[in-house]
UniProtKB/TrEMBL annotation:
InterPro entries: SatD. The lineage of its organism: Bacteria, Bacillati, Bacillota, Clostridia, Eubacteriales. This is SatD family (SatD). Pfam families: SatD.
Length: 253
């Protein structure tokens, strides 16, 4: 069975955004660059579906959260926030160059996921456990204790240790890590975001100091550490690994 990832994204309070036509045009241009960058990952070009909602279909499911974060980072630089629903599963139609011509389990999961991401009332939303998270992944449950994961995967690759008797759903673990990340990133200050962007662009403290002599290596290190940036990077690596493992389990079922 082939397994895909479908990502539905919508703008938070889109009707309150001024100059929506120009914003949409800017987003379309940005998506054109993403379509090229991720041409080996995307089944079809990113599609505008309903109003300000977009849809992505990925053949490499482990890239899902990476792509979400790339889009989120770009839009946050424009003061735009998003809801995101990720669905992982099969597709019942042939692959198409238009996401609207495809359908199946992954699409159903993605639609359910974005609906849940938009549910602000935590009493009714049992899947998201922090008000700072607008991203959720939905898929059929796969339990670690019900599979021979230890025989198929290196424990370090799983990045999770089972220390309790209860069965653990991999989807729940992925969402817990996503929510942890989203909560941490929601607390980044503007100055921390500026330093993080420089670090991600230039790669080392030395390169930052060369271009910005007033930013010492110790100051840069302190800001990155204080923001818990390195924890978010590690979480993203774990999430990608877990989605890869989860996808293989779905393919084998």
């Amino acid at each position: 069975m082939k397994v895909y990832s479908v990502i539905n994204i919508d703008i938070v309070k889109s009707r309150k955004i001024k100059d929506r036509a120009n914003i949409q045009q800017m987003i379309k241009q940005y998506f054109s660059t993403l379509n090229l960058k991720y041409k080996d990952v995307l089944v079809a070009p990113i599609t505008f579906t309903l109003g300000d909602e977009w849809q992505l279909v990925l053949r490499k499911t482990n890239k899902s959260y990476e792509l979400v974060n790339e889009i989120k980072k770009f839009l946050l630089s424009k003061k735009i926030e998003i809801y995101c629903g990720i669905g992982v599963g099969s597709i019942s139609t042939n692959e198409s160059n238009d996401t609207r011509e495809m359908d199946g389990e992954a699409f159903i999961h993605a639609r359910k996921a974005i609906t849940m991401a938009k549910t602000n009332n935590r009493f009714y939303n049992k899947e998201i456990h922090t008000k700072y998270c607008r991203v959720i992944l939905i898929g059929n449950p796969k339990y670690i204790m019900n599979t021979n994961v230890s025989n198929s995967y290196d424990v370090a690759q799983m990045e999770v240790a089972v220390t309790i008797e209860d069965e653990l759903n991999i989807v729940d673990i992925i969402n817990a890590l996503i929510q942890n990340n989203e909560m941490i990133e929601s607390k980044f200050t503007e100055k921390q975001i500026e330093v993080i962007n420089l670090y991600e662009e230039l790669g080392t403290y030395n390169e930052i100091q060369k271009l910005y002599p007033n930013m010492s290596k110790s100051s840069t290190s302190h800001k990155l550490t204080a923001s818990n940036y390195f924890l978010t990077v590690y979480n993203k690596q774990i999430i990608a690994n877990l989605i890869k493992v989860y996808t293989k389990l779905l393919m084998e079922s």
